[in-house]
Amino acid sequence: MAQYTSDVQAGLDRMREMAKGNFDLSWMNSNPEGWGHQAEPGPTGLRMVDIETGHYAPVSGRGSSLGTMAPRGCFVPEDTPPCLDTYVLNEMTEVWSENAAALYDEAVVRQWNSVTDIPWDKLEKLPDDIERAVCQMCTGLTEVEFVAGDMPARWLCQINHDFHEVKLFLATQIMDEARHLDVFRKRALANGGGLLSASPGQEELLAAILTAPDYTTASALMHIFGEGFVLTLFRQGEFLAPTEVEKTIFRLCMQDEARHVAYGVKHLQYLIERLPEREAEIHALLDVGEQAIFKLTLEPQTSEPRAILAGGGLANIELGMARMAFIYRKQVQEYLNRLQVAGLDRSSRITIPLEIPVDELAA
After folding, report:
1. Please, which residues have CB within 8 angstroms of residue 95's CB and are 6 or more apart in sequence?
2. Predicted pLDDT at 78
3. Is 159 in contact with 128 (CB distance < 8 Å)?
4. Cα dihedral angle (149, 237, 110, 220), rounded to 10 degrees?
5. Is the pLDDT confidence value at 255 over 80?
6. How far apart are CA 39 and CA 50, in angstroms?
7. Which of 19, 35, 138, 265 is the 20 to 30 Å CA partner of 5?
8. Cα–Cα distance between 193 and 136 in angstroms, integer?
9. Range 322-347 burial, b when 16+ CB lie within 10 A, else e
10. Rounded-to-5 percentages of helix, strand, coil across the chain
């Protein structure tokens, strides 16, 4: 006869009792405060914001399910072991954003794919200078987009389960960024071109994001700087997209990036409102980030292909540089506006030019 461990033997004894009709059933009345909850679907369906009401609405400033994976609002037996020490982001200020649930609802509804939602059949043969510019831009964006998914992936397993709205939203962001890498790589390889040059300046910024000492630092660098500047760029897609294919890619990626930036802004706002003493630290971080973004913006691998596309060809690169100066001005202004919404007035402290004179850019 097999020799079982004490745990297995206890389980067998329990099964014999159940076979005799002796059940526990205490779980049926374990959470009386949460029983009877009902949610009403809205006109767009049953959203997360529709179910997080009543007993399930409050979110403690410090996560209550320390070391466990218990969902917020359930009953946690006293003998539940705190099996995991990976959930170290237990303070709401570290990760929270009031719009996380709404952004998650939007993200799951607006998912798209690069296989059937891009009109690849409309891809047309382009002049060599235009195709090279598109491929270089797509190389740079491919380089960026996976890191934009790696950052939330790095921190996701450290966030307390009580903050599931944030965790679910970040999971959609990881999928968004994987799709962005996919679509930009496909565009680079789909039309007779290919991947061109990586970006040293971009690598420095991406490394700073991935090695950031805390989540808020990583989020500010990525959501406010990286994705904020890319979002503005995508919004000016009419200057950069030579065919309907690129226009569609920019439009679909733009709606994803807008969610990521919206989360980052509201998270920073939530933090600053509750921990104003961190404002000086954040300003110091922004000093570094601005320098990195400015260096990256004027790097040849970044600026020149965009200028060729904005001008409509290498022969009109000066016109393209003027248009890129306009886009840069919008990037900086929208960056300052986002910080203003978050509660940081950066207008007198910004360390990079508000605009680039066209003659200086050309030089």
Report:
1. 89, 155, 159, 163, 166, 215, 267
2. 85
3. no
4. 40
5. yes
6. 6
7. 19
8. 10
9. bbbbbbbeebbebbbebbeebbbebe
10. 65, 0, 35
Six-digit token pair at 193?
Answer: 């071109």
- Options 3.40.50.300, 1.10.580.10, 2.60.34.10, 1.10.620.20; CATH of 92-362: 1.10.620.20
Residue 50: half-sphere exposure toward Cβ, Cα within 13 Å:
11
Query: How does DSSP classify residue 224?
Result: I
What are 24's two structure tokens?
């526990």
pTM strictly above 0.70: yes
**Residue whose token pair is 């393209």:** 320
In Å, how far are 96, 106, 184, 290 from 180, measured between CA atoms? 25, 17, 6, 24
Separation of alpha carbons 222 and 229, rounded Å: 10
Q: Lowest-pLDDT range, 227-236, 244-253, 336-345?
A: 227-236
Tokens 């397993």, located at residue: 157
The pLDDT confidence band at residue 86, using thresholds 50, 70 and 90, is confident
For residues 1-18, average pLDDT: 89
Cβ atoms of residues 222 and 151 within 8 Å: yes
Task: Specify whether the backbone of 123 is left (phi greater than 0), alpha (psi in -120 to 50) or beta.
Answer: beta
| Mean pLDDT score, 167-179 | 97
- The packing angle between helices 317-342 and 244-274, to 10°, is 30
Task: Give yes or no for a contact between 107 and 176, defined as CB atoms under 8 angstroms apart.
Answer: yes
Confidence of residue 158 (pLDDT cuts 50, 70, 90): very high
